[in-house]
Specification:
By secondary structure, this protein is an all-alpha fold. The protein is 92% helix and 0% strand.
């Protein structure tokens, strides 16, 4: 998968996670739970979403880092070739 596609998929997954949290927020605020319990609930749901999305997001983040390393390597290699060419 191309780097742009990986970044787009990563952003899509994070946006989906955010939409889930935003969707539950009004119900939590409207509940009769005290503030500390609401915060605990929101933290727990956020952590559960992190855990649920980890298996989807982690491989993409790994692929992004790998693609960035390859791109950096290619850039340095191109620079070295250019420097050698100018030295001749």
């Amino acid at each position: 998968m191309a780097l742009d596609d990986l970044v787009a998929e990563h952003a899509r997954l994070l946006a989906q996670r955010t939409r889930i949290l935003e969707a539950m927020a009004p119900a939590v605020r409207a509940s009769d739970l005290d503030e500390a319990t609401r915060e605990d609930l929101q933290t727990g749901v956020s952590q559960a979403l992190d855990d649920a999305f980890f298996s989807l997001v982690d491989p993409i983040e790994t692929d992004i880092r790998e693609a960035e390393r390859h791109a950096a390597f290619r850039a340095v290699r191109a620079d070295l070739i250019d420097i050698r060419r100018r030295q001749r």
